[in-house]
Design a protein that fits this description.
With 53 residues, the protein is of the alpha+beta class. The protein has one domain. 23% of the residues lie in helices and 11% in strands. The protein has a two-stranded antiparallel ribbon.
Length: 53
């Protein structure tokens, strides 16, 4: 999951990115999305399924 694809609407916007810039990443896979959460709720009930960060 340590990979991704960067898309830009124009070549100019892609050229504005520099090595070391901070960008936002939207998780597209459930494992990464779940790892970003601090807790789970299933049917309205709190469920602990991961170690605390």
């Amino acid at each position: 999951q340590e990979h991704g694809i960067i898309e830009a609407t124009t070549p100019e916007s892609m050229n504005q990115l520099n090595e070391g810039d901070i960008i936002a990443v939207l998780p597209a896979h459930s494992c990464l999305t779940a790892d970003c959460m601090g807790e789970y709720r299933v049917n309205g009930k709190y469920t602990v399924t991961m170690l605390s960060k």
